[in-house]
Specification:
This protein has helices spanning about 50-55, 70-85, 100-115, 125-140, 185-190, 195-220, 230-255, 260-280, 285-295, 300-315, 320-335, 350-360, 375-385; strands at about 5-10, 25, 40-45, 60-65, 90-95, 120-125, 145, 160-165, 170-175, 180-185. The strands form three sheets. A six-stranded parallel sheet has the order 3-10-7-6-4-5, with helices on both faces. Strands 1-2 form a two-stranded antiparallel ribbon. It has 13 helices and ten strands. The protein has about 400 residues and is α/β, with parallel strands linked by helices. Bound molecules: zinc ion. Zinc ion binds near residues 203, 286 and 306.
Length: about 400
């Protein structure tokens, strides 16, 4: 490797205009190389959690475990058992991670440093996992993740969403590396309340449409930052899986059955959607979600608002009516909102503010092939409200 051909981008983990601060060959900057970020090992299955110790051992024998109270009350004993049976000592344990703020992250950094953990294991939902990933990055140690519910696709990704102390969105961090190990124990995830897997499906619904828009936008601009064909294929696979298995999976989780449909949906959300969004980009669906959330008038969880906003993106793109109708039917079948009335009916003024944010200020909005125009997006919303 010729060192002179390489330099390191500012690695402040904020958006640099490239996908992530890392080492880039100077002679390949224009166009940039295709990239694919992914975890070193993704392990999904009934009892997968018992493999944690064995798979973690190559990274050290002192574990620092961080997660939410509920998550660790469910999975904590199994985590300890697995680590201990592989000769890994649990040197630190924090079961009070509720938010992903710098206050929480810095606390985890201090605790792990104090107990000399060789790696961090993040356990639970998106915020706890993101806090653990960011703390590990600051400590320059590997991170492993253990999902306990299916609302979030944070486990396999190297990105983290940071919030302010008053729970407002602060920034997306693009961490230099992904978790080295992702454990998804289907038995634990399938027993979590139904709403989580429904929300996870709502968020995952966006990845095919946003990655396609992102790819078109990049091709159109000719700057070469196109996603890999693999990432786009995963987005498509994720969508097919949601349509085929989603309704049955939701029913099975409601009835406490760990069926093949549930297993397929866990993979679609936890692996396929994570690798798609991370290796392409978000677009109108997440831009509108962010706008609606900012107004404070849209009631709903992340995945619920994203599902509605995905239908709006489909209408905005002029997708065939029957395609939109079938997604709307699917959302209705699993209890995802398809009308603003299900999101608390934001006022006309709030809706306009949300759309203005999506079109003018949100960086995801810039990932659409054409510049978003407020009247066009408002019209797409009106179509979703009246035609489907
Ligand atoms: Zn999302």
């Amino acid at each position: 490797m010729d060192k002179e051909l390489f330099f390191i981008l500012p690695n402040d983990c904020s958006f640099t205009g490239f996908w992530r601060g890392d080492i880039v060959r100077v002679d390949q900057l224009r166009p940039p190389p295709r990239k694919m970020f992914m975890p070193s090992l993704y392990l999904q299955g009934k009892g997968a959690i018992y493999h944690l110790g064995q798979k973690a051992l190559p990274y050290g024998d002192k574990a620092f475990v961080a997660g939410g109270k509920t998550a660790l009350s469910v999975a904590g004993d199994r985590i300890r058992k697995s680590l201990n049976s592989s000769g890994i000592e649990v040197v630190g344990w924090n079961d009070s991670v509720k938010e992903c703020t710098y206050a929480v992250i810095n606390k985890l950094v201090d605790e792990c440093r104090h107990c000399k953990g060789h790696f961090v294991i993040g356990v639970g939902g998106g915020r706890a996992i993101d806090a653990a990933k960011t703390a590990a990055w600051k400590l320059k140690v590997p991170v492993m993740t253990v999902g306990t519910q299916c609302a979030s696709n944070a486990d396999a990704s190297g990105e983290a969403v940071i919030y302010t102390d008053d729970r407002k969105f602060l920034e997306d961090l693009l961490l230099p590396r992904n978790p080295v190990l992702v454990i998804e124990d289907t038995e634990i995830i399938a027993k979590a309340p139904l709403k989580y897997i429904v929300q996870g499906m709502g968020d995952a619904l966006s990845c095919r449409f946003e990655s396609e828009a992102f790819a078109k936008a990049r091709q159109k601009r000719g700057d070469g930052e196109v996603p890999t064909t693999a990432a786009l294929a995963l987005g498509n696979q994720c969508f097919q899986s949601l349509m085929k298995h989603g309704e049955k999976a939701a029913n099975d989780v409601k009835n406490g059955i760990l069926s093949l449909d549930v297993v397929e949906i866990i993979e679609a959300v936890k692996l396929s959607s994570a690798l798609t969004f991370e290796n392409s980009g978000c677009a109108l669906a997440h831009a509108l979600h962010n706008g609606l959330s900012k107004t404070g008038q849209a009631k709903g969880e992340h995945g619920e608002i994203v599902a509605y906003s995905t239908i709006v993106q489909m209408a905005y793109e002029g997708r065939p009516k029957e395609d939109i109708a079938s997604v709307v039917r699917w959302c209705n079948s699993i209890g995802l909102p398809t009308k603003l009335a299900k999101l608390g009916t934001p006022s006309r003024q709030a809706l306009r503010q949300a759309v203005e944010h999506a079109c003018e200020h949100d960086r995801n909005g810039r990932n659409m092939p054409d510049k978003l125009k407020v009247p066009d997006v408002l019209e797409a919303i009106a179509r979703v409200e009246s035609e489907f």
